[in-house]
Design brief:
- This protein is an alpha/beta fold and 341 residues long.
- The chain has 2 domains: 97 residues, Alpha-Beta Complex (Aspartate Aminotransferase, domain 1), CATH 3.90.1150.10; 232 residues, Aspartate Aminotransferase, domain 2 (3-Layer(aba) Sandwich).
- It is built from 14 helices and 12 strands.
- The protein is globular and about 65 Å long.
- Keywords: Lyase, Pyridoxal phosphate.
- This is Low-specificity L-threonine aldolase.
- Its EC number is 4.1.2.48.
């Protein structure tokens, strides 16, 4: 990657090894269930997360939506965080696709309060109220925070008490596991279904996986077809996915680079870094400088070969990944210091 791209960890290109594996991948027709590379990826993903089966899907949004659709019935209510990806960044898909109502609770720190979740579960048989059908959790969270194992266990206990399934949006599941110093299966065990991305921080060009029981995945496979997600010789993508799973072992490097980046940014007068939120590969910060215009900074850095997103209500986010080395961070810092001097 020639440009230094800090917009997200979705911008990564396939590694040279990935491209070689993709070119040589044995393929079949995945809708018929005879693509050997897809089957290998799904088996590996299920084993890795301690589940019975897995399903390859085109994207993280697709993984979440097919999971909600499979778990719920029309008119039910699902409980989830007010800042989670399903609420904030999936274009209202659960209403459009699953026809479910959403009920949100605070989650700005990346965790749902088990007591609050239990409070709002619909316990009445009154025909006037919706039926709670699902609890959704997200880790690592869009805010960069990571739910503790204790929090996930407490939510599991609440769900079991009321016989409710849990879906885990684990788009950056392996980042969360790396931060906690555990394996992905240590997080996945608290959920009935888990979706995770191969294209966020793991360099795969396309794809996510959903894991769960064999019965759940069989139903989800039918729903994938309903939603138009059945693919043919998708083993070319699965080959990249298999290598992406190997790259989960280097995510700590991205986390360390993010902390380094945050420490350096904090040295610039007028920049306030949310250091408490640097848990994975994201650095959040605000700028308090006279006459500062966020779009001006975006254009300035773009002219220097550095891509960033504009601010969201004053909050900026830089994301480290495979192609953001210490040397590149230092180059970004050099340009930022020049801009703010």
């Amino acid at each position: 990657m020639n440009m230094i791209d800090l917009r997200s960890d979705t911008v990564t290109h396939p590694t040279p090894k990935m491209r070689e594996l993709m070119a040589a991948a044995p393929v079949g027709d995945d809708v018929y269930g005879d693509d050997p590379t897809i089957l290998q990826l799904e088996a590996e993903a299920a084993k890795l997360l301690g589940k019975e089966a897995a399903l390859f899907v085109p994207s993280g949004v697709f993984g979440n939506q097919v999971s909600v659709l499979t778990h719920t019935q029309r008119g039910q209510e699902i409980i989830l965080g007010e800042y989670c990806h399903i609420i904030q960044h999936e274009a209202g898909s659960v209403a459009l696709i699953s026809n479910v109502q959403t009920r949100t609770v605070p989650d700005e720190k990346g965790e749902l309060d088990p007591a609050e979740v239990e409070r709002i579960i619909r316990k009445s048989n009154d025909i006037h109220v919706p039926v709670t059908g699902l609890i959704c959790v997200e880790t690592a969270h869009s805010t960069g925070n990571v739910a503790s194992l204790e929090n996930l266990e407490a939510l599991r206990q609440v769900a079991d008490k009321y016989h409710l399934p849990i879906h885990m949006d684990g788009a950056r599941l392996f980042n969360a596991a790396a931060y906690l110093g555990v394996e992905g299966k240590d997080l996945a065990k608290y959920a009935d279904s888990v979706s995770f991305c191969l294209s966020k921080g793991l360099c795969a060009p396309v794809g996510s996986l959903v894991v769960g029981t064999k019965e759940f995945i069989d139903k989800a496979r039918r729903n994938r077809k309903v939603l138009g997600g059945g693919m043919r010789q998708a083993g070319i993508l699965a080959a990249a996915g298999l290598e992406a799973l190997n790259l989960r072992h280097r995510l700590k490097e991205d986390h360390e680079n993010a902390r380094y980046f945050g420490e350096e940014l904090a040295k610039i007068p007028g920049i306030t870094v949310h250091t408490d939120s640097i848990k994975i590969n994201m650095v959040f910060f605000t700028v308090d400088r006279e006459n500062f215009q966020g779009e001006d900074l975006v254009e300035y850095l773009k002219a220097k070969g550095i891509l960033i997103n504009g601010d969201d209500d004053g909050l900026f986010r830089f994301v480290t990944h495979y192609y953001i080395t210490r040397e590149r961070i230092d180059l970004v810092m050099k340009n930022l210091k020049e801009y703010f001097s």
